[in-house]
Write a structure and sequence with these properties.
Blueprint lengths: L4 E6 L9 H7 L9 E3 L4 E7 L5 E8 L6 E11 L2
Antiparallel strand pairs: 1-5, 2-3, 3-4, 4-5
């Protein structure tokens, strides 16, 4: 396994109202093809590919308790050919 990048996406004025678990589970994102909801960590994982490329990256999206940000973790690039 190699490196991964971490992006903090501030919730701003939505800090008191946004809930990632509710958004993912109530709107069906957890059941869409290639998406994976991990209940124990409340994390959404899915591969993201570039339209003009044969590579993809695995992305994990989570909302840690008492955090003012959504965390987006971009894992290693994978060759899809």
């Amino acid at each position: 396994m190699g490196s991964c990048d971490l992006l903090h996406l501030p919730l701003g004025e939505c800090i008191t109202t946004f809930n990632l678990k509710d958004a993912v589970c109530n709107h069906g994102f957890s059941m869409m093809t290639l998406n994976s909801w991990i209940p124990s960590t409340k994390t959404l994982q899915r591969p993201l590919g570039h339209a003009n490329s044969t590579t993809s990256v695995m992305v994990s999206i989570s909302q840690p308790p008492n955090s003012s940000s959504i965390l987006i973790q971009v894992h290693d690039i994978q060759n899809t050919l």
